[in-house]
Amino acid sequence: MFTGIIENTGRLQAISQIGGDVRLTIHAPKMDFSDVKLGDSIASNGICLTVVAIDGDSYAVDVSRETLSKTALQGWQVGDTLNLEKAMLPTTRFGGHIVAGHVDGVGKIAKIAKDARSVYIEVQIPSELMKYTADKGSITVDGISLTTNAIKPDENIVCLNIIPHTAEMTNIARHWQVGKAVNIEVDLVARYLERLLLSRVNDEQTAPKNTISEQFLAQNGFYL
Hints:
By secondary structure, this protein is α+β, with helices and mostly antiparallel strands. It folds into 2 domains: 8-86, Beta Barrel (Elongation Factor Tu (Ef-tu), domain 3); 105-194, Elongation Factor Tu (Ef-tu), domain 3 (Beta Barrel). Helix content is 18%, strand content 38%. The protein has 5 helices and 13 strands. The protein has helices at 65-70, 164-169, 172-175, 188-206, 214-219, and strands at residues 8-18, 21-27, 41-44, 47-55, 58-63, 81-86, 105-115, 118-124, 138-141, 144-147, 150-152, 157-162, 181-186. The strands form 2 sheets. A 7-stranded antiparallel sheet has the order 10-9-13-7-8-12-11. The protein has a 6-stranded antiparallel beta barrel with strand order 1-2-5-4-3-6. Strand 7 and strand 8 form a beta hairpin. The termini are far apart. It catalyses: 2 6,7-dimethyl-8-(1-D-ribityl)lumazine + H(+) = 5-amino-6-(D-ribitylamino)uracil + riboflavin.
């Protein structure tokens, strides 16, 4: 589990093909590896990946074909800057929102413009994910917990304002440009709320109908 508050950025150092899957080596000289062990999770551009090797300031992760097919990772290149966040601890300050690191879809940067000291960004997301968005709601873009300032449902657009600190602490200032593919994770609470409501509707539709009638009461001695 993560919070969407980026701790460090790293550089994609190597991409290796291994038996149909992919192994990534990420160089992160600013990251503290003292509390990281093999098998721990680190979110890389919002994708929860398991550490399989640590070598000095670098670590390696294996990526399955499923992850490759469902995320923007397939477009990554050596030298790319990645947003990194270690899995949260019970004592972690919860500065963002609940992030699972399970990417729901791939979006695209549609617009970037200056807005005073901030950066105004529009991200086009898959149409099926729009129902999970709301004005002033939370969304994760490339692992960054962000607040949606507004939504444009007809265009499948979420509108964001990025403050200077967030832009500098992530790969936004150096790497985001119009047309760039980004990983999208919607609010976990919205997904589970939808599941709960759908289950309730299904239960109501499949519940036994009330079949009590005068004939039933008479047959069972309640009605003469």
